[in-house]
Design brief:
heterodimer; A: 5-stranded mixed β-sheet; 47% strand; B: 114 residues; 7-stranded mixed β-sheet; 55% strand
Chain lengths: 111, 114
């Protein structure tokens, strides 16, 4: 699976949009981009995933660049409860489903 | 109505003991996993089972033995516990091993070996 690069930490004001970047320059054509987050002392939580097109769900939006070498997770109105480590993961479809977690980005939402 | 539940939440034991962690999912998923999160917070996959069959076995000491009595359960038995086994162990499940369905994680079991 392709490796990803994320900033180690980011801050965001409560109520503002949080934009979390992820670089995956070695991504191949059949690899999906996944985002998970881990709130302190809890298990990782799935947020969103996509292949080529931008995606939106009730939690967030995922913007993937046209060359697919980077993506941005957008939390439109961050709340204090969104403070967590956010993981960007790239994996291919098919068998031996294996998510490889990196270090992620610690997002701190400030009041 | 917890989707993926693990027991116990905390486990403190001495070196050399044998212990088990249980995991159950009520999502009807085919695939279950065990992940380990060490003190540096890295999450690493240990095992994956699909329809009770082992499909992923990372480089894990054979003191760790997963057992899947049915699709809804994946237990982790650890023999001869060592200090380095101290970590948080997460169980997860997903809908099949070849789909792109997301993983659903439990809230972890914090194992402390003294």
């Amino acid at each position: 699976d392709a490796k990803t690069t994320q900033p180690p930490s980011m801050d965001c004001a409560e109520g503002r949009a949080a934009n979390l970047p992820c670089n995956h320059s070695t991504i191949s054509g059949n690899e999906y981009v996944y985002w998970y987050r881990q709130i302190h002392s809890q298990g990782p939580q799935y947020i969103i995933h996509g292949l080529k097109n931008n995606e939106t769900n009730e939690m967030a939006s995922l913007i993937i660049t046209e060359d697919r070498k980077s993506s941005t997770l957008i939390l439109p109105h961050a709340t204090l409860r969104d403070t967590a480590v956010y993981y960007c993961i790239v994996r291919s479809g098919g068998s031996n489903y294996k998510l490889t977690f990196g270090k992620g980005t610690l997002l701190t939402v400030n009041p | 109505d917890t989707a993926v539940s693990q027991t116990p939440k905390y486990l403190v034991t001495q070196m050399g003991n044998d212990k088990s962690i249980k995991c159950e999912q009520n999502l009807g998923h085919d695939t279950m996993y065990w992940y380990k999160q060490d003190s540096k917070k890295f999450l690493k996959i240990m095992f994956s089972y699909n329809n009770k069959e082992l499909i992923i076995n990372e480089t894990v000491p054979n003191r760790f033995s997963p057992k899947s009595p049915d699709k809804a359960h994946l237990n982790l038995h650890i023999n001869s516990l060592e200090l380095g086994d101290s970590a948080v162990y997460f169980c997860a499940s997903s809908k099949g091993d070849s789909s792109n369905s997301p993983l659903h994680f439990g809230n972890g079991t914090r194992l402390t070996v003294t």
